[in-house]
């Protein structure tokens, strides 16, 4: 039986992409609260400085902001070089950074498809490949990909976004099979309707109509997703890999 410390991620080194707001920001706090050393990524320089300092003080944690575009190959090499130099290990990778650009069939441009897949799929694969170099040497690690319920069910008007999140599901299952013999676990979380700024941007009327589709009667909260990520990052899930965990309150899409 695995022993469970009060801080479930004590001693672990984690990298979280897209950690400056919404779900990523909540995962950052939950990981910091549970003892992880967190490299917190955002694209806009300086956007994490204040929150990282506040959370580090609040939780007596070490949070290192790292600013880079996940589609920038040279920047990816640099951040993993930094992690190697400072800690020489990486225990948890959370691929949270993503973009959502919607268009109806017939209106989907090459530019839109390239943008969505570059961030939501290609960057995820590249980040996994870098992380695996650490995790193979360690003979263990946890990779957590943030997908979406629309990657499972599809959704009208979101052909590019839902296809990209479906690709995340497929690559998660494939990576899990390939990496399991190395002790590396790969799982995905497929959130439903989560109360973030991105969701609120669709307008209050549409938000209310969407809540009516959720059998639990409320929007999900970022901490609902973050707590699932904590489970997948911790030793509690040491025999769990290749899984797509829905955090959706039984929503009907």
Characterization of this structure:
This protein is of the alpha/beta class and 253 residues long. The chain has one domain: Rossmann fold, CATH 3.40.50. Helix content is 45%, strand content 15%. The chain has helices spanning 22-33, 49-59, 73-86, 110-138, 150-153, 159-179, 197-200, 204-211, 222-233; strands spanning 13-16, 37-42, 63-67, 92-95, 141-146, 184-191, 244-247. It has a seven-stranded parallel β-sheet with strand order 3-2-1-4-5-6-7, sandwiched between helices. The protein is globular, with a radius of gyration of 18 Å. The mean pLDDT is 94.
Mean pLDDT: 94
**Elements, N to C (H/E):** EHEHEHEHEHHEHHHE
Beta-strand proportion: 5-15%
Class based on secondary structure composition and strand pairing: alpha/beta
**Poorly predicted runs of 5 or more residues:** none
SS elements, strand count: 7
Structural descriptors:
253 residues, Rossmann fold
Topology:
Layout (H helix, E strand, L loop, with lengths): L12 E4 L5 H12 L3 E6 L6 H11 L3 E5 L5 H14 L5 E4 L14 H29 L2 E6 L3 H4 L5 H21 L4 E8 L5 H4 L3 H8 L10 H12 L10 E4 L6
Parallel strand pairs: 1-2, 1-4, 2-3, 4-5, 5-6, 6-7
Briefly characterize the structure:
The protein is α/β, with parallel strands linked by helices and about 250 residues long.
């Amino acid at each position: 039986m695995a022993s469970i410390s009060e801080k479930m991620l004590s001693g672990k080194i984690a990298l979280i992409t897209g950690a400056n707001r919404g779900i990523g920001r909540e995962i950052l706090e939950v990981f910091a609260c549970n003892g992880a050393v967190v490299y917190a990524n955002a694209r806009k320089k300086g956007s994490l400085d204040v929150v990282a300092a506040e959370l580090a003080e609040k939780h007596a944690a070490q949070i290192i902001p790292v600013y880079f575009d996940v589609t920038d190959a040279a920047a990816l090499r640099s951040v993993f070089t930094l992690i190697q130099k400072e800690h020489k290990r990486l225990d948890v990778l959370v691929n949270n950074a993503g973009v959502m650009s919607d268009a109806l069939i017939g209106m989907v441009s090459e530019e839109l498809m390239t943008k969505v897949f570059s961030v939501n799929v290609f960057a995820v694969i590249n980040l996994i490949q870098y992380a695996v170099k650490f995790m193979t040497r360690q003979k263990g690690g946890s990779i957590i990909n943030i997908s979406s319920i629309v990657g499972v069910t599809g959704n009208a008007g979101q052909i590019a976004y839902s296809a990209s999140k479906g690709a995340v599901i497929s690559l998660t299952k494939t990576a899990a099979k390939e990496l399991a013999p190395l002790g590396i676990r790969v799982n995905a979380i497929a959130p439903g309707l989560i109360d973030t700024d991105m969701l609120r941007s669709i307008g209050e009327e549409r938000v209310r109509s969407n809540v009516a589709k959720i059998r639990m009667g409320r929007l999900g909260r970022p901490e609902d997703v973050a707590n699932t990520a904590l489970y997948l990052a911790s030793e509690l899930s040491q025999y769990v890999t290749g899984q797509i965990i829905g955090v959706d309150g039984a929503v009907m899409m």
